[in-house]
């Protein structure tokens, strides 16, 4: 996911796989230092640390077209793999690596002028993403207590499952996420597959397609950090506006326009159209249905050339029509932000972040699976064996 995200960002900023800039307008370079440091010879290097407990995945990133852009010493990997075991990632194997990782992160953080926070992309099903990911969060929290910690977490789903012990790993992680993160964007393979099948009309979606959807959302959420716009929202503003109570920071995300490539030419994109599509349950990237709950708050991030007035009217419109879906005790639920630079292949797009009570469906699903397995003490010895 991380490498896909960097591909999209490099594309939007006009940076070639060698790290050299090749764009046509100054707005692309204006705030490029948010995600890149400038190396020698005008070469841009992502501020990223890539981390895994086995060498395989990182080797494949290194061999990919954009593999050469990352700083070599920021690839950190163990040799054994976590074997889908949360305890291995969190207590035994992960703990050996963590000091090295924190050193690398310190170096990156010291190169920043004004550090706003950290973004972490991980899955909660396996051992590394969940165990080591949460360990890393708690360490970063200790060292940078006042910085924003924002995670893109792929929650395991019943239909698309790699291993049996996913519910265990996810349950352990959620506890840590509640404690240490400021914003958690929940993604879900099941929902992403549904979007690929039903909306994008793909016959056999691969992980590449899923990662592409995720990177569209990640790019949308971070665009106002990277480009000048009429109304900007940064990580901290989002956190302030979206989290009414500190522990309720699990968001659903959606993206518009999602249309199949064949139908692309038959639809015009307008602000009302995007807004309508964005609030549709089937555009949500985690399998919880927002119409079963209420929105506490929501954020709408538009990209492209459009009038602020139009956006404001549209949002008032949504609030007045669907007032039953919003809670009464928060006055203006929806914050909007507009960014002038659209994504690469579109004229305008919109990203949706909602803090909805329906997210509990997702946790219920995981906890039912957890209880079902734990009642029979299935696979528990893997975890107790690691302590």
TrEMBL record:
* Annotated family: Belongs to the tubulin family.
Q: In this record, what's one Pfam family?
A: Tubulin
The UniProt function text for this chain reads: Tubulin is the major constituent of microtubules, a cylinder consisting of laterally associated linear protofilaments composed of alpha- and beta-tubulin heterodimers. Microtubules grow by the addition of GTP-tubulin dimers to the microtubule end, where a stabilizing cap forms. Below the cap, tubulin dimers are in GDP-bound state, owing to GTPase activity of alpha-tubulin.
An example GO CC term for this entry is: microtubule
Q: Which cofactor does it need?
A: Mg(2+)
Q: Which organism is it from?
A: Goniomonas truncata
Organism ancestry = Eukaryota, Cryptophyceae, Cyathomonadacea, Goniomonadaceae, Goniomonas
Q: Which UniProt keywords apply?
A: GTP-binding, Magnesium, Metal-binding, Microtubule, Nucleotide-binding
Q: Which GO terms describe its biological process?
A: microtubule-based process
What name is this protein filed under? Answer: Tubulin beta chain
- Looking at the record, the residues that make up the Tubulin/FtsZ GTPase domain are 32-229
Gene responsible for this protein: btub1
């Amino acid at each position: 996911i991380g490498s896909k995200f960097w591909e999209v960002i490099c594309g939007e900023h006009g940076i070639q796989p060698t790290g050299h800039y090749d764009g046509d307008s100054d707005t692309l370079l204006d705030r490029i230092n948010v995600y890149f440091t400038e190396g020698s010879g005008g070469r841009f290097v992502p501020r990223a640390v890539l981390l895994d407990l086995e060498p395989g995945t990182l080797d494949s990133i290194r061999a990919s077209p954009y593999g050469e852009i990352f700083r070599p010493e920021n690839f950190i990997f163990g040799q054994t793999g976590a074997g889908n075991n949360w305890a291995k990632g969190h207590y035994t194997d992960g703990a050996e690596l963590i000091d090295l990782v924190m050193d690398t992160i310190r170096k990156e953080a010291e190169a920043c002028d004004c550090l706003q926070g950290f973004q972490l992309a991980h899955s909660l099903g396996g051992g590394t993403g969940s165990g080591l990911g949460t360990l890393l969060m708690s360490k970063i929290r200790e060292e940078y207590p006042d910085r924003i910690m924002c995670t893109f977490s792929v929650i395991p789903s019943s239909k698309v499952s790699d291993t049996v012990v996913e519910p265990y790993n996810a349950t352990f992680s959620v506890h840590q996420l509640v404690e240490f993160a400021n914003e958690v964007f929940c993604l879900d393979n099941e929902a992403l597959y549904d979007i690929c099948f039903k909306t994008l009309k793909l016959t056999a979606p691969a992980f590449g397609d899923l990662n592409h959807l995720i990177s569209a959302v990640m790019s949308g959420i971070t665009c106002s950090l990277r480009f000048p716009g009429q109304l900007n929202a940064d990580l901290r503003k989002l956190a302030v506006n979206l989290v009414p109570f500190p522990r309720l920071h699990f968001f659903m995300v959606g993206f518009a326009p999602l249309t199949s490539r064949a139908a692309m030419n038959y639809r015009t994109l307008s602000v009302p159209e995007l807004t309508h599509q964005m609030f549709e349950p089937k555009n949500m990237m985690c399998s919880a249905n927002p119409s079963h709950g209420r929105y506490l708050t929501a954020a709408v991030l538009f990209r492209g050339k459009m009038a602020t007035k139009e956006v404001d009217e549209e949002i008032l419109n949504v609030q007045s029509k669907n007032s039953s879906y919003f809670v009464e005790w928060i006055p203006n639920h929806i914050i909007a932000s507009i960014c002038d630079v659209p994504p690469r292949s579109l004229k305008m797009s919109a990203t949706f972040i909602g803090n909805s009570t329906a997210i509990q469906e997702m946790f219920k699903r995981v906890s039912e699976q957890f209880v079902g397995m734990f009642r029979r003490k299935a696979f528990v010895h893997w975890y107790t064996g690691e302590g």
